[in-house]
Amino acid sequence: MPRSRSILLATALATAAVGLSPLAASAAPPTRQDAFAAAAGEYGVPESVLLGVSYLESRWDTNGMSPSTSAGYGPMHLTDVAAANAGGTHHDDGTEDARGDSARPALLPRTPSADDVSAPSLHTAREAAALTGVDVATLRSDPVQNIRGGAALLAKYQRDLGVHSAKPADWYGAVARYSGATDTGSAGEFANEVFSTIAQGVDRVTDDGQHVRLAPTAVRPNTRQVTRLGLRVARAGEAECPADLGCEWLPAPYEQYGPGSGDYGNHDLANRPETQKINYIVIHDTEGTYDTTLNLIKDPTYVSWNYTLRSSDGHIAQHVKAKDVAWHAGNWYLNAKAIGLEHEGFAAQGTWFTEAMYRTSAKLVGYLAAKYQIPLDRQHILGHDNVPGTIPSTVRGMHWDPGPYWDWAHYFDLLHAPFRSTGTPLTGLVTVRPNYATNQLPFTGCTTAGQPCPARGSTSVVLRTEPRDDAPQLVDLGLHPDGTPGTMGVSDHSSRAETGQTFAVAERRGGWVAVWYLGQKGWFHEKDAIWSVGFVATPKKGRDTIPVYGRAYPEAAAYPADIPVQAVTPLQYSLLAGQKYSVGLITPSEYYRAVTFDQNDNHVVVRGQTQYLQIQFGHRVAFVNVDDVDVRPSFF
Hints:
Elements: H1 3-17, H2 22-26, H3 32-43, H4 47-58, E1 72-73, E2 78-79, H5 81-84, H6 124-132, H7 136-141, H8 143-161, H9 172-178, H10 184-200, E3 202-205, E4 211-214, E5 247-249, E6 255-256, E7 264-265, E8 267-268, E9 280-285, H11 290-297, E10 307-309, E11 316-318, E12 325-326, H12 332-335, E13 338-343, H13 355-372, E14 381-383, H14 408-414, E15 429-432, E16 460-462, E17 496-498, E18 502-509, E19 512-517, E20 520-525, E21 529-532, E22 535-539, E23 545-546, E24 575-576, E25 581-593, E26 604-616, E27 621-625, E28 629-633
Parallel strand pairs: 5-11, 9-13, 9-14, 10-13
Antiparallel strand pairs: 1-2, 3-4, 6-7, 8-12, 10-11, 15-18, 15-21, 16-17, 18-19, 19-20, 22-25, 22-28, 23-24, 25-26, 26-27
């Protein structure tokens, strides 16, 4: 677009925004592409740079102009922490004991503490308002003005560097500063991703139906500019990360805090994978700011996780070595065989995640999966909401993050392991795969109990008792012991399946497919699925029902005399004759005994003869004894 035309368009947009020109106000709204071109021309930002930065923040989506998990609004992710209403953390909600080891006293929930919201990266909308003359509320709610605000910030950052150039290559420093990163590694990683996006090009339709294109352009950016931003140099130290990510080592404390050998925290020393195979990576959402989350991990009396990822730029801090066991998933069997990643987010209504964080998270998970030979599928890459309760009494208190707005399909695309059909309607398995952008489910309770959530894409499908949209949802006796059906409450996944999860087909009818789920048939639209093939588990002939477990512990005879036997307790569900469930993996029975300070005391792995199958039993995975089931190809 010629500069004169872009300036005229930008002026018209600005005038319409403040209500000064009836003619401009009555004109057809500009396209998203036009808005980027106009803002770039108005503030002298290369259009490719503006598009690239916006893509790394939001993929050009509006997300209903609701806040991200780090208080960012709109295509340019302008932040306004006051409007986003920071709250407590999900670690303080419910009754889950993050350690999940019944051999030790439970780590009790805490009173929520105030979030640290002082970081400048949480207040960029205010700075953009001063630069554009547009009030903060409009910058939060109007995509066109939001884009103008982002362009104004980029232009200011360029001026602050004293660089005067129209060449995209000379905007590396301004892009790095836009990330909000406080260290050179993360700022550079963000800028590298932006310029990689410019080089590759992108062509997509946004969540609100806008077609936007960034033409591929070869650029060799001036990466030395990042050293002029006055940022600290983060030290990778002992961090276990890909070399090109801006990781740092911020160790969690392993220390005693009381008189007893069991009064210690906040993780356990181990020697994985030599002593136990690492089978899982668990995805969490902090529901607290990055700085607040780092303060939590420093507390030896609290819980722990292996990595924290910052939303604005994807920066990664590691706290617990992969060889050691962090206390994060609420299930000791899973904790002993998992690595936990916490992704920054703090407001209850902040329910979308930045592209920058998706990308660094995917790079980290890909690295860990390759290092520890963890398959890239939804049987091994779990959300916290997919981790089972350990025994019946713990099921209801398990956490539900990262929730129905984490885009699993996009995440696995970034992992280079996309969900693709491997079967036909006759091969017996189905993988949940709705269209994220258009799959806008009527959840409630994002901000106020019972009140509708803003319309936005979701990774979930709701299961019904019959093949019709008004049929009741299924019953989850763990979440609703009174037998009432599931609800549309955002945290109620009683009757909900997630993208990438694979279930055994029970029946098909009129464009609907039924799957076996928590001992029931659950129906959803075939259009929201792809066909798969694999193995299923079904009760052995003559067995009316078999027990389902939340942990794969050994039989009593496997325990040495000096180690108390851990009960093998079934959950409150039934797996009935004739039902089939998708098999995720086969696993030995193991219990990691680590109840005292210092690994050299009596930490030991107890192994039994019993073997278990992990199955996709409901929203969460579960385990069944191999001796209780027949395993067969899904198409038999």
